[in-house]
Amino acid sequence: MNKDCMHRERMNEGHMNCEEYLSTLTGQIRCKMARGEVAEEVRGHIECQTRAFMSEGMERNEAEALAVREMGDPVEVGNELNKIHRPQMPWGTIALIVALSIAGYLAYYLFTAKCVDEAGNSITGAGMRYLFYILVGLAAMTGVCFADYTRIAGRARELMAVLLLGCAAGLILFGAMLNGAVRWIYLGVMTVDVLALLMLTVPLYAGILYYYRGRGMSGVIKAVLWILPGCWIAMLCGGAWMSMILMATYLVIFEIAVCRRWFCISGRAAVTAGCAVGAGLPAAVLIWMIYFVDSSYLQRRLSMIFGVEENMPYARVLAGELLDGSRLLGKNPGLSDTVIAPPDPSEAALAGIAGYYGILAALAVAGGLLFLLLRFLRISLKQRNQLGMLMGIGCAVVFLIQAGIYFANNMGIFYLGTYCPFLSMGGSGTLVIYVLLGLMLSICRYRNIAPERRPGRVRKEYRTVK
To answer: How far is CA 412 from its chain centroid?
Structure first.
């Protein structure tokens, strides 16, 4: 006689108690993540019905046994609940990511086919290396997609500390200077960009906010202090632009947490705290730059970003040339067959597509990217799980900011470094982007079943009684 038959026989005899019933029922649910929440919900129904029977004069054991019997066969009920509480793969979103990966690589490849170095030699040799990064990134994204993102909340502080200390130690011990900045860690077989790694702090910071929820003003103060290390490391690496992006993203998700009363403070105190942090931190950074950063260096940096023609970086000048006179379809008649490539051709790939293949081709790539990011943002805002909501919003916001900067770069408005999804080509940046995409896919996959976890604890999982 199998276990299900034994459980049915015990139930028919009225001998199955609440815990045995829940164990049998949740044993039919394949997704372990959903078992605890389902068990709590069913237990609540059984308890309510038990109390109703007890109010009619029944003893506790008799009332519970009858309430359990009225819930129905645990195997059948569990099978029905299994159809509802199971991960749902966002296949449409995954297909769009793959399509954008192909489109982004083609945009880079088609543009570099028109680029030469200063000696007139082709530069398309790096294309296969970037294709390898994309394939590895897709594999990493798949692995992260199947991971349980809710377990980050309990270990977010430890993971953040390890990441930040690892970046700091790597820069001290293995830092390599490229283009005048020590922002790379040389590990022999590979070079890791610290500014790219710092993007991983965004979902970890969301986990830290989730950890401190319900802790009042002390939680607010601790959450604010966690903003500083990542921004500081980015500044030390010469990445003021990344520091601003990180701070803006941190502040967005911090404000959301405050407005949703995560810290259990009054409405007036929440508004005051949010405004103070939102205005105070950027003001403090500005004061620090004015008084402690060499003014000539600051002027040169601002001139490079927004400066006049003689101080413009070549990538910005090239973007203007590619777009000036471009057509909806086809090649810009004012362009030669080849152009001298900027230091990183992917920084101007979208403008190159507009110049050589038409504005509509560039708009198709940019529109697909914006559609994906806004879709992730919309899904995150509708998340039932509060951790998934904040982590998803953080990842979507940091990508939207990066994409906005990339579009401005390619329109010749200003020039800042960026890691735009699918369009920026590089080892560290590409892998980090796909890891964050995998995290957002995990949030989408478990959007209906992810439990709210207590900080540092894992809820009890119900398994079939052996």
So the answer is: 28
